[in-house]
Specification:
By secondary structure, the protein is of the alpha/beta class. The protein has 7 helices and 8 strands, in the order βαβαββαββααβααβ.
Length: 247
């Protein structure tokens, strides 16, 4: 539900130096390995940047491995691992980067504690976290509002927090990181109708699975999303909070 992930990783590039070991946590997109490829763009012949992509989704990891093999990126590994239980040694990573992760997990503090464990002292944490409460959608009709409310309710019931970007600084400080810096960046380019279609599809899937116990609020939100998709064109500008901190 966002534009290509490679656009989100660009704020990390100035932090990287050849020879670093970078963990791209939860950053194996289903459609390829854009973030991981971008992070390896600073590699040199003598001091490659080594990137480890980690994701809990086995199928996504397999697709990413194939994509990286086809692009001849030899300084990258892809592993299957939970963000709260990484199969990495303590203090073995220079940078941890995570895009669209903390809004999807039930216990973001546990994820950040695991990031702190694998980072070397002085290592960097770089997060790109959405705040859907600040996303700009035009036109913002009654159907758009109702669909977004229903989708937000669904995400919270599943244990996530669509407005995680609002809280990420406090979470990072609570995990013991220092020199915490954040800024909000609005990314343009997400397709207006596609966003409505994605919300409609997610709500409809949950409603199908619920059978006779259909939630009337979610059903109403799904109908609103259906109307949104069939309306006119519009614009989406999604808010992402970019956070950098020191271990």
């Amino acid at each position: 539900m966002s534009e290509g992930q490679s656009g989100h990783a660009r704020f990390v590039l100035p932090l990287l130096r050849p020879g670093m070991r970078v963990l791209a946590l939860g950053c194996v997109p289903s459609g390829g390995a854009e973030d991981v490829r971008l992070l390896t763009s600073l590699r040199t012949a003598t001091q490659p940047l080594h990137v480890v992509g980690a994701d809990v989704d086995l199928d996504a990891a397999r697709r990413a491995r194939r994509a990286l093999a086809l692009s001849a990126v030899s300084t990258t590994d892809v592993v299957v691992a939970s963000p709260t239980a990484l199969a990495l040694r303590s203090e073995s990573v220079d940078v941890v980067y995570a895009h669209a992760l903390l809004d999807r997990v039930r216990e973001p503090q546990r994820v950040l504690a695991e990031c702190a464990r694998v980072l070397r002292p002085g290592g960097l944490l770089a997060l790109s976290t959405p705040d859907w409460s600040r996303t700009r959608v035009k036109p913002r009709t009654a159907n758009v509002d109702a669909a977004l409310r229903g989708w937000t309710m669904l995400r919270r019931r599943e244990g996530g927090d669509p407005a995680a970007g609002r809280h990420v600084e406090d979470w990072v400080r609570g995990a013991g990181f220092t020199d915490v810096r954040s800024r909000a960046r609005f990314h343009h380019g997400a397709d207006y109708r596609q966003l409505g279609w994605t919300i409609e599809a997610e709500l409809a899937e949950v409603l199908r699975e619920s059978g006779d116990h259909m939630d009337p609020q979610l059903a109403s939100a799904a109908r609103s999303a259906w109307m949104w998709v069939r309306g006119g064109p519009g614009e989406v500008s999604q808010c992402w909070v970019e956070t950098v901190a020191v271990r």
